[in-house]
Design a protein that fits this description.
The chain is an alpha+beta fold and 542 residues long. The chain has 17 helices and 27 strands. The chain has a domain at 9-258: 2-Layer Sandwich (Nucleotidyltransferase, domain 5), CATH 3.30.420.40. The protein starts with 8 loop residues before the first strand and ends with a helix.
Length: 542
Amino acid sequence: MSTSKKNAYILAIDHGTGGPKAAIVSTHGEVIDWAFEEVALHVMKGGGVEQDPDEWWKAILKTCKKVIDSGKVPVEDIVGVCNSSQWSGTVAIDKEGNHLMNSIIWMDTRGAPYMKKIHKSLIQVSGYSLRKILKWVKITGAGPTLSGKDPLGHILLIKNEFPDIYEKTYKFLEPQDYINLKLTGQIAASYASIQMHSMTDIRDVNNIHYSNKIMKMVKVPQDKFPSDLKWSTDVLGPVKKEFADIVGLGKDTKVIMGAPDLHAATIGSGAVRDYEGHIYIGTSDWLLCHVPYKKTDIFHSMASFPSAIPGKYLLVNEQEIAGGTLSFLRDKILYHKDELLKEEQVPDVYKIFDKIVENVPAGANNLIYTPWLIGERAPVDDHTIRGGIYNLSLEMTREHLIRAMFEGVAYNVRWLLFYVEKFIKKWVMKERPGMKKGAIVMPELNMIGGGASSNVWCQIFADVLNRTIKQVKDPIQANARGAAFMASVGLGYIEWDHIQKYIEISNVFKPNPENREIYDKLYKEFLNIYKITSKLYRRLNK
């Protein structure tokens, strides 16, 4: 390993949906300083959800400059830059690298009609063409969903509804790869970032390449995508002079490819060994772990994809709304920005929510909240399902409502956990010969993301899931820490096996057996709510 610098640091960028965070992180994962800048979300009728790449870049420049100017580390000790971005978005660029329209992001469903058209056939399974989906699963691990939220849905939307932009498009890039272009001037994709396009053959994780069969099937030419594919630990190049000058960085500082948020968060959570799981609670949520093999559960929207760790697969899934529930409550209900309240100052409501929830008994008086505010991806692919409050009565207060929202997100994750453990169970039992069939597959789960900052929410997760929850220190910085670890490995400062010892756990939350009965009962009804209402929502939101 390289030891050329005793104190070495990474400028890590965590480019999330809410906006980018820039952080100075040591090569051993210690977060020295960080800054955040919010970026607007443009939501339109008909399922459109976009962001302006110019706003991304301005916010990245501002936050990077702020942490470097703080002077907490000498600039000459910053040895690398690594970005982790939101996944499943699309930026159309011209030959000069300029974006041609707003980025269509992972929430956008306008491509759904074109995905349904692709799958139109005599033999269908859950709306998918049996012949095509079997080909996709065999080659790429999983095909794009019918929701239109995947990059192929975005691209077909552009092709059909914005043909002028489609013709001018030189390359379609993930947000991850667009930011790397802005950092270096180089067009490339990582094996991790390109995976969501469902166009690469991943059967051999050490020989990933575009599939000609898939390209012909979707009728989008390969030259519309980056020709250069790299591992997440590869050096893409030095930073551009313009970037270095603006933020005050050394001009020879190297940019490491990095990976999307799911991959970076997994590494930043410390769950780098096979079958070690973590829960991320941000705007959305997921429950992931590394696995040694390629496998797909198409019926519950999860599959093993190329990891940020070369030669490994990562079990990938995602649920649309988790912490986004609380920002929805704050921004759209309690402190809506209308004329009547425009002068009102919004307090730090998340801390207030925690205090309220602590004083409400488990089960919220049998009030149930479903967090499907913009449809769902896993364990059901259903873009028409919507959120709701069930069993509301005059005896309820806002305290019950807020507690129910915390618990509803946990019920949704428990739903996902059931299929994650089912996905890996056979492999785990083979590796643990003494394990009984009824044993818990994942007894402990690390928890990260903004939601993991809440002690009461961590305890709710422990109780609802009936699992030990380990709250990672500085959980909101897991993505930045993961980006820094990728850079540190890529530059030779550490090895993957070292990461776990650098992860600190703030608290350990054990399930409270007194809450087992109430949460088992309400979880069962949570599942029943989906079964009963899914057809209704399909009619309402068709």
